[in-house]
Amino acid sequence: MDCTRCTTKQCQSLSECTSLKVDAAGIAREYLSEENQKIVRSAAKLVDNGRGGTLGRIEELAEFCTNMNFKKVGIAYCWGLENLASQLATYLREQGLRAIPVRCTTGGKSQAETNSTSSIKSVSCNPLTQAKQLNTEKVDIAVTLGLCMGHDILFQQQCTAPVTNILVKDRVYNHQPFDFFNTK
Ligand code: SF4
Question: For a pocket test of ligand 1, which of 5, 8, 13 has the largest count of ligand atoms closer than 8 A to its C-beta?
C-alpha cells in the first residue's frame, strides 16, 4: 500500500479503500470506546470551528491536557535541549499544569553500561530510566523533546502514560528534518 502513489484518493471522499486489509467495522467500534472518544473529542476541540492553525503545538499541548483533565505532564528531554525543556515546563506551569522534566542522562549510566558492545565510559542517554521515573511520578501524559533516534522508541515502549512528541531532534537541520530535502 502506498497512499502517496494512489491516484483515486477515494478515502478523501469517504469511500471505502480497496487497498485496506483491516476490520473497518471493528475499528469503528474501537473509536466509540469511552477512552478513545475522550481523546478524539479533546483533539477535535483544538481544530474544529475554524480553530485549525490558530494554536501552536505547545499551546495545543496545554489545551489538550486541559481538555483531557490531565494534571501532570512528564517531559522526557535531551540534555542538549534543556533550555527548551525549561521554557516548556515554565509555560505549562503557567497554564496550571504540573510539569515533571526528566533529562536523558538521568541515572548517570555510562555507554558501556547501556550498550553491551561499547567500552565508552562517558554518560549515556537513559530512556528506560526516564520512562520508569515518569511512570513512578504517575504522569497523565508524557512529552518527548529531542530524544535520540531509537531512544525515543525505548522510551515510548516503557512509558505507561500516553506519549506525544513536541520536538524531533535533528542535529544537522536544526530540528527541521525535512530541510534535508532542500539540500538535495
Ligand atoms: S484511497 Fe486508499 S490507497 Fe488511496 S489514499 Fe486513500 S487510503 Fe490510500
Answer: 8
